[in-house]
């Protein structure tokens, strides 16, 4: 693809009369809100330093979005939003705030009620629950008052946040985040004339709408910021841009879609030049490249358009909150200007979570160094990446969790470990000096490879997600603890390996069971080894000693409970079946099955939720509510799993009716004892005792269970268990992005749409 094809220019059908004509842009007109625009925003970023050398970066964007057309006038009513973030580069902290219009819950609920969501039904259902209460999910907050926007001069007031221009043409930005106790009061003094971006100012927007875009990339900034009561007098460099659309059909407004995604970068270089680049991608065409533009501004303010640029990601970082991977370093090349620079983020954790661009976008401070026209150059700037994950489903999200979980396990259990990695894995109480290269090779073959065989097949890791999700749900930050993903996955994988031996299972996770590949002795040893590897990631994480001690206590409680449940499950419930068959009373049988499920599956899920809540610093009542919720999900999940064993799993992950072949008494079988006539109860019990392998015989049992509604009743019971537990979570936890994810996850786990 040649540069001209790569950076195809946007050609608009018709230039609106409200847009600037060719030549100099009159800021007295075009800084103001534009009548009829569907969407418009005013954006600022800056890089500032205090007198004591504290370094900060900041961006803010004030949005004005058409919500509906006035009946009597050919104009729109508008909703207003503001998003902003402060990056503390010394302490690597990212403070965000997003305020949305009071009309958003009701208006968004109207849109969602009409929307046929096919990709992420559970998440949108959870979002509708929040909106129906008149709330928005935290970290978004509702504006307390309607925004005050002047049409005669640039004056935007969104609660205590404002952006105004004075008579001298200088811009004044005030930002206030009471939750994080942050306030910013900054003045932007333009040093050059405004510059047109895109094709002489024209480009596409979020919904493929025609936009006009100008910017002032060189401003002097001074003022004061306050963080938790501490004041910083600051000064530095700033950037201002303004973007506004044509008028259009209001049906496109607030439609919860991102037709376009983009990568955008702004740079202010120490040689007096500035530059801005963007690449657009069409989400309606599977992310097909849709053009882009590079603009260089020389030290006299002259605009130079470039098309032969490349902005190539080198490294990626994955968020533990959304499991989206974002570029954190790039190679920037502009051959015609002999530009070759390496760009990197000041720190990775600058992800912005908001329903305004679901599920999140990345916008943060960056730095650059390299060559510009052959001379050495450095610079600071901002990068934004948005719109790339708008079609994410819970399925794809959990696959993202699974991918990172596999990476974490791979780093813990590499197939070609160094001597140091090998020694840490063994950590023998009798020393390590006697180990030889042959010992390491044999350990890999007999321990690491069998474990990795099962772990690497895992496509989703919902148990691992539980732990991190609960950290965030109580107000903590899961990112420093992402390595802990390995612990739940290894525990579960170990239990699967041993369980397959005990049940003589032939398949696991779409492949041959481990004991058929390595033999039962090595499989059992590998499964047991998994239980003790989680300690290595807990030990090296940033967990305080008292919290780590509590985690160990909970861990061993969980393992005792799970093994008790496994023992009860293996010994079976055959002794109870004759009475249940003869009497048609299944109550005792069902109660015993509940006990096994609680110990085997619910107790681990409950424990992981507790560990997450404790690490996140949650209040006791929050931790208890989350623990009960995930205990309920674990119990309900196992009931549904019993149903799926009879109906068949997606992608044939297990053999259909495997529990019948194993002679197990599961909840659907128990439930049927209270629903079927005696002769059919006797047939089912007699057949299960023979542990049939003939698919016709297995099918006859499944048919009876379906006809008496045992399967549907099990599903309904599972749903009721989860819904009852959710009531406490609903009452105790504030509505948030993370709480919505937990809600949606519960429905997903039980296959409820």
From TrEMBL:
This is Geranylgeranyl pyrophosphate synthase. Keywords: Magnesium, Metal-binding. It comes from Flavobacterium defluvii. Pfam families: CrtC, Lipocalin_9, polyprenyl_synt. GO terms for biological process: isoprenoid biosynthetic process. Residues 39-246 form the AttH domain. The keyword ATP-binding does not apply. It comes from the Bacteria.
